[in-house]
Design brief:
The structure is a single chain. This protein is α+β, with helices and mostly antiparallel strands. It has helices spanning 16-22, 28-37, 43-52, 64-81, 99-117, 166-182, 222-241, 245-259, 319-326, 329-334, 356-361, 401-407, and strands spanning 6-13, 39-42, 82-83, 90-91, 139-142, 147-157, 188-197, 204-209, 293-295, 299-305, 310-317, 346-355, 370-373, 376-387, 392-398. The protein contains twelve helices and 15 strands. A hairpin with a 4-residue loop joins β14 and β15. The longest helix has 20 residues, at 222-241. It starts with 5 loop residues before the first strand and ends with a helix.
């Protein structure tokens, strides 16, 4: 089985004061383990967080059009500013701050906090209008029993180790103070400063700052928040990939749960269509995944070009469809995809379905491929697939050499 390359981040406490505070946390042993051994994470996992997590909280990737437009830009932006070829993250630009350092800071911070609290990507999905407060500068999640608020900062350093100065610490503390003064009531608050080295012989570093154990007012209980966060996350993916009754019913159910004072009454109540007939998820009912690229009968998604020879696969574990239809709240909150335990990551795929209009955008002639119906062709591609524990799947594919020579 091929193994995805991993990126390493050295973890340390900002200083002794922050260490003493963090060692009083209920997950102190997990924090200490990270400090002792560092964080190693799959490169694609880091890329997913850097590409798809928004600092400003604005909804993006809401439809196929946005996906096709933003993914190539984000990929190119990361390539222009950082290098990940040496087992860590290095900066390709001089010290300073930019949009990419922000993205790297967020990605690294969330990966660190995931290890502490046992979270995954679905837990960081924002829930619109959960309160009157502004949380755009923070990443908010729930593990089902408590809320976790993360303030992340990314910065580039040129020589030696990341310099601990009052400016960096102040960036975190000022936002903590401003937020807490308006919102008394959250359980765990973490600050993570990620240093991206310029020198190739240095490793990216994460500095941990102490959590603040004060209450911040959230307008729902942690279990409901985690449930809604995951439902929003999966609905956002499914509405891009699929169409039909399932997605509409899911979006309606989310709104009902969100507004309900007793949302538990909907636990285990399956989704139904407009005629109140049970919705049958794929693979038993293939209508919602028609003309999608399906891998090993377990993954379904969209394949589209991002360059003359490169393709991107945006997909999901097919188990997510059944999970959404059945609406078992405990199963949703505990869901962790096992795809990474079942499939190899390097694949040659013979049945990728691609829209002819997408090929035309990059000047790729469609007459070289087998037409399967109006506007669609089937292509053989080679590449790698990454399986996230949330069930989100991404892949980077390319045309085989023989196909490229024919197109040249």
């Amino acid at each position: 089985m091929s193994k995805s390359p991993e990126l390493r981040f050295d973890i340390s406490f900002y200083d002794d004061k922050h260490r003493d505070a963090l060692m009083k946390h209920k997950y102190a042993q997990r924090i200490k383990q990270l400090v002792d051994f560092g964080l190693s994470e799959k490169e694609e996992e880091f890329q997913v967080y850097a590409m798809f997590t928004e600092q400003d909280g604005r909804p993006r990737f809401r439809n196929y059009s946005e996906l096709k437009r933003l993914v190539p830009r984000r990929i190119q932006m990361l390539k222009d500013y950082i290098d990940t070829s040496n087992g860590t993250v290095h900066s390709l630009v001089s010290p300073g701050e930019n949009q990419v350092t922000e993205r790297v800071g967020i990605a690294a911070a969330l990966l660190v906090v995931n290890k502490i609290f046992g979270l995954h990507r679905a837990d960081w999905e924002r829930i619109p209008e959960t309160s009157k407060r502004k949380t755009m500068d923070f990443q908010l999640a729930s593990d089902g029993t408590e809320f976790i608020l993360v303030e992340a900062k990314g910065t580039v350093f040129e020589t030696g180790n990341l310099h601990r100065d009052t400016t960096l610490e102040g960036h975190i503390k000022e936002k903590k103070k401003a937020h807490l003064s308006k919102n008394p009531g959250l359980t765990s608050l973490f600050g993570v400063i990620t240093g991206i080295p310029c020198q190739l012989n240095r490793t990216a570093q994460c500095l941990l700052l102490d959590p603040v154990f004060e209450d911040i007012e959230i307008e729902m209980d942690p279990a409901k928040y985690q449930l809604l966060s995951r439902l929003y996350f999966y609905s956002r993916i499914l509405r891009v990939i699929s169409r039909g009754q399932l997605v509409r019913a899911l979006l309606n159910r989310i709104e009902v749960i969100k507004r309900s004072g007793n949302y538990i009454e909907f636990d285990g109540l399956p989704l139904v269509d407009i005629y109140e007939e049970p919705i049958i998820p794929p693979p038993e009912n293939a209508s919602s995944i028609w003309n999608k690229t399906i891998v090993k009968d377990k993954i379904v998604g969209l394949m589209f070009p991002i360059s003359k020879a490169g393709f991107f696969y945006y997909a999901v574990d097919m188990d997510v469809y059944r999970l959404m239809v059945e609406q078992n709240f405990k199963a949703i909150r505990n869901f962790r995809s096992t795809l990474s335990e079942q499939f190899i990551e390097r694949v040659t795929y013979d049945n990728a379905i691609v829209d002819i209009r997408d090929l035309q955008q990059y000047g790729i002639p469609s007459d070289q491929f087998r037409k399967i119906e109006e506007g669609k062709v089937m292509i053989t591609l080679t590449g790698s697939v990454h399986y996230d524990t949330s069930g989100q799947v991404i892949g980077f594919f390319g045309l085989p050499n023989e196909t490229l020579s024919q197109l040249a």
